[in-house]
Amino acid sequence: MSKREDVIIKSEEIENQKRIMLLVNNINSDGEKYAFVETYGCAQNVNDSEHLLGMLEKMGYKKTDDKKRADVIIYNTCAVRENAELKVFGNIGALKALKRDKPNLIIGVCGCMMQQEHIVEQIKKRYKHVDIVFGTHSLYRFPEILYNAITKNERVIVFKNEDGKIAEDLPIHRDGAVSEGVSVMYGCNNFCTYCIVPYVRGRERSRKKEDIIKEAKDLAKRGVKEIMLLGQNVNSYGKDIDAYIDFPDLLNEVSKVEGIERIRFMTSHPKDLSDKLIDTIAQNKKVCKQLHLPIQCGSNKILKIMNRKYTKEEYLEKIRKVKEKIPNITLTTDIIVGFPGEDNADFEQTMEVLKTVRYDSVFSFIYSKRRGTPAEKMEDVITAEEKKANFDRMIELQNIISAEKNAEYYGKNYEILVEGVSKTNPDFLTGRTDGGKIVNFAGEKDLIGKFAEVKITKSHTWSLTGELV
Ligand code: SAH
Ligand code: SF4
Ligand code: F3S
């Protein structure tokens, strides 16, 4: 167990960054300044970007969605698959012309990609118009990094190959959504052999219960009704801190916060999913009846090489328990198709799992080789075309299952937390059931942020349509 003081960034250091924010704010007091932040990857990154925007706000920048208007452009990157990285390179490449026309523009890249030395080297050499580079572990130092870039008029590239810490009390900018994310822990200790996350996010470290509750209370005060507790493996919450409290206990504590009506969480590792957690979801009214439990693959041979530490049978037994105790639970999973060594017979076992569990939806990915992970050196036994054919076949199967599961909602009434106006139809509102199903229906905007009872009149593969009762 690590000592708290070694894991938390000292408050003097955060105070120092706050002083620098004021300095930048002074520099910017000569006119309107704008910042554009684009986020890739998971909810953890979205949460980090909210902190970036919070710091930018304190430094005198207004948020903009227009790159041309921006004085600072930041890409908060994800390294989990190659296509996410390629998109970032494409996007920063395209900023060259903008920088030429507006030399004072500050272009920054941060996040998980920037915790990898070879990527930082590539940016240094090939993207000379990028002014600042910093990884996830240096996020709290953003004010200092930006200040140096502005005042010294030079590139600031921070690459630190050390474990991350926890920065409490950083400013945060939220868009005022009905549902907000709250990080409960950072990092991952699992080292699944395909995954880059433990390398770019460091070891598991849990926030103190008090800090989490305080954040939840602040959100409730601002009218937030639902929170999503975030961590790469929330089931390990608390194992690294002295005052031991486990994740189910944390859920119960958070549920005492007045005003917070719904609590979701992501992600649970199947190996650590305890009976206590299942019971807590079943018994605590505020904990949503929804579970995202990534299986990755249905073949024991592959699960072993992936270092997932459970068998298909153990996984299915947990699912059986979950369904028994929480009959109407919404179940989702992640699947990787084409992991090295996976043959067509292994893949068929994944298909069998989908048929057995009947998930509400599945997030599926074709395996992407990540530099520095153990799987990087492992070899394929089937071709890329075969992988793609398997992937397509899996999506076809899952789409049918998802549509069938949604059809079960037809004609029934559900309590919907209204999140906003539908993106596809401005006359419709959109919200979610307790289980997390998206429901669109006609209604007045003053329902946003409130609960509404809606009868389902139509079901689709990805969503439901209904009418107010
Ligand atoms: N901590 C979470 C998920 C982290 S990444 C968990 O353990 O479930 C989200 C998903 O991306 C993973 O569940 C996995 O399905 C996928 N993923 C991770 N690394 C990948 C890789 N190298 N190639 C393809 N998909 C990957
Ligand atoms: Fe990656 Fe595995 Fe950790 Fe999830 S549990 S972040 S898949 S190493
Ligand atoms: Fe991507 Fe980093 Fe999240 S690699 S998935 S943004 S932790």
Structure description:
With 469 residues, the chain is α/β, with parallel strands linked by helices. It contains 15 helices and 19 strands. It has helices at residues 4-7, 11-27, 43-58, 82-93, 96-101, 117-126, 142-152, 197-201, 209-221, 247-254, 275-283, 300-305, 312-325, 344-357, 384-407, and strands at residues 33-39, 61-63, 72-77, 106-111, 132-135, 156-158, 179-183, 185-186, 205-206, 226-230, 262-266, 290-292, 330-337, 361-366, 413-421, 428-432, 438-442, 451-459, 464-468. The strands form five sheets. A six-stranded parallel β-sheet has the order 2-1-3-4-5-6, sandwiched between helices. Strands 15-16-17-19-18 form a five-stranded mixed β-barrel. β4 (106-111), α6 and β5 form a beta-alpha-beta unit. α2 packs parallel to α7 (142-152), α10 (247-254) runs parallel beside α11 (275-283) and α14 packs parallel to α15. The radius of gyration is 23 Å and the shape is globular. The model has no long low-confidence stretch (mean pLDDT 95). S-adenosyl-L-homocysteine binds at residues 80-81, 194-195, 197, 232-233, 267, 269, 294, 296, 334, 336, 365, 367-368, 370.
Provide keyphrases for this structure.
469 residues, alpha/beta, 6-stranded parallel beta sheet, 5-stranded mixed β-barrel, 15 helices, 36% helix, binds S-adenosyl-L-homocysteine, binds iron/sulfur cluster, binds FE3-S4 cluster
Q: Helical residue percent?
A: 25-40%
Named once each, the bound ligands are:
S-adenosyl-L-homocysteine, iron/sulfur cluster, FE3-S4 cluster
Strand residue content: 15-25%
Radius of gyration: 23 Å
Could you say which structural class the secondary elements and strand pairing correspond to? Answer: alpha/beta
The general outline is: globular
**Largest sheet, spatial ordering of strands:** 2-1-3-4-5-6
List unreliable stretches of 5+ residues: none
Mean pLDDT: 95
Distance between the termini: 53 Å
Number of strands: 19
Query: Quick one: biggest sheet?
Result: 6 strands, parallel
Oligomer: single chain
Helical segment count: 15
